[in-house]
Amino acid sequence: MTKVKVATDWLAGCAGCHMSLLDIDERIVKLLEAVEFTSSPVTDLKHPPKEGVTVGILEGAICNSHNVEVAKQMRERCQILIAIGDCATFGGIPAMRNMCGTQEALNRAYLEAESVVNGIIPDSPELGKPLDMVTGVGEVVKVDLFIPGCPPRANAFWYALTELLAGRTPVILPRELFTYD
Ligand code: SF4
Q1: Which of 11, 63, 150, 153 should be mutated for ligand 1, with most atoms under 8 A from CB?
Q2: Check: CATH 3.40.50.700 for 4-96+131-178?
């Protein structure tokens, strides 16, 4: 059986959404019978393959220019893009930065915090340039499915992925979002 290729990546997030995906526990064995995870932040391969995947999954908000590049690359290389978690859906916790502004948040974190000694604001091309506004993924690329929650319940991931594998469009209902395993 040809397996469905899935790639995941994260933007400005805490990794909690990926951990919740792993919380499907033993069901992951069944999932792996039908799915090949080509790349993810926790595998050796970090970027979705050039030849593309069927499903792309993104965690985290859009905070900087690097996040924009990662989101665009995933969008270009996947057929169905899923934004997982509140950060990817509407900005979530990182979007709290919008209330004071990017520069003020950077000053507070790296220069003014009580624990800082000889602080410096990080500035490296590898980090990307901070954006003025933190947003969800849908503000920069087309998203086909949002799975909100902080993090989304494992049942929501299981439901969405198995519906897609069955060729159906998932409709995320409260039952899937709020039921604990
Ligand atoms: S939605 Fe919650 S768990 Fe997911 S990356 Fe954001 S803060 Fe972390």
Answers
A1: 150
A2: yes
